[in-house]
DNA sequence: GGTAGTATCCTAGACCCTCTAGGCAAACCG
DNA sequence: CGGTTTGCCTAGAGGGTCTAGGATACTACC
């Protein structure tokens, strides 16, 4: 029995790729073992259990995405930063639907995904610097922004916009413009 | 062996209640059979398979929610209608998280949930009557509205807003006001 | 290069969930 | 009241999760 050379990281990477191919819900310990030509039980030396595997995939995806967001936002501010931020999310979700789905699970506050999740919160806040908001307005704005983008991407990925002639790209542009206008003229009270 | 008197509808109803109690993901044929004090195999005379069961729960939830939305929106228009619509969704999701999760699955276009899903599309469109939009703007508005509300509710339910002092209710009100303002002053082009 | 130790992968097996096939009996219906 | 339907059953195959414990490929040290 030659050793395959599995490590937690290689398993996570393979699981992430598998998620994009067959859907995150179908990423099982068994499927992953099959992919490596190995018995199920062998994986449990590297991962705690199935939930742990999924959390690792989520952590990896969150890190990748945060890197892309940070890169694309570099040197931009205001509307450009907003667009870069939003488009990074949407593009990532389109290119890696399985990984994006992985990020949506209930992830434990002490799991491997906790640290990268905080990075996302910071990146989101950084967009709002240009828009001079009071601390409370900032919280509302973050929530609204996150909700809108996440909601749009989820529904688009789910296929909700496919049965209407108008291209999703147009609606997306309109949404971004609307968010920018809203942030610029945030209701005082 | 006394007969329990299961029907597809009673199973669906019980599955919906179970979903709210233990989470939609944990609603299995086995769990449902246990709940009725019956063997797993017995359920398959009433439902096609596990997927069918879940689709039925989704259909039931969609119908219930559409009824509530329609009731709460009756006689209202403009901002009142928008608020009634949005709050109906949010309240339903809060009171019935399992059922709300059921609605988010990929549901086949020919499954039991197809008809109620169309009702929701119609109800959403009816909100926009008051806001005089061009046909294309209407599509963009529906998408943006749906995305924002769905995104907000999903994130709130997921607990994303629990670790910040500001009450979610305040942010929700701000979001509704912002949506109303946006719809009232929809960007011409 | 031999040997001791460790990490990797294995077999075996328990448990849960899904679903099919076929049997028996309760309920209904003429 | 006897026949048919239908509801629930047992039996069992197949797949996923996970633990315990055994065997072997590698590593490191003498």
UniProtKB/TrEMBL annotation, chains A, B:
DNA-binding region: 28-47
InterPro entries attached to this UniProt entry: Homeodomain-like_sf, HTH-type_TetR-like_transc_reg, HTH_TetR, MT1864/Rv1816-like_C, Tet_transcr_reg_TetR-rel_C_sf
Keyword annotations of the record: DNA-binding, Transcription, Transcription regulation
Gene3D superfamilies: Homeodomain-like, Tetracycline Repressor, domain 2
Pfam families, per database record: TetR_C_33, TetR_N
DNA-binding in keyword set: yes
Keyword Transcription: yes
Coiled coil: none
Domain HTH tetR-type stretches: 5-65
Highest rank taxon of the organism: Bacteria
PROSITE patterns xref list: HTH_TETR_2
PANTHER family: HTH-TYPE TRANSCRIPTIONAL REGULATOR RUTR, TRANSCRIPTIONAL REGULATORY PROTEIN
UniProt-recorded name of the protein: TetR-like C-terminal domain-containing protein
Organism: Kribbella koreensis
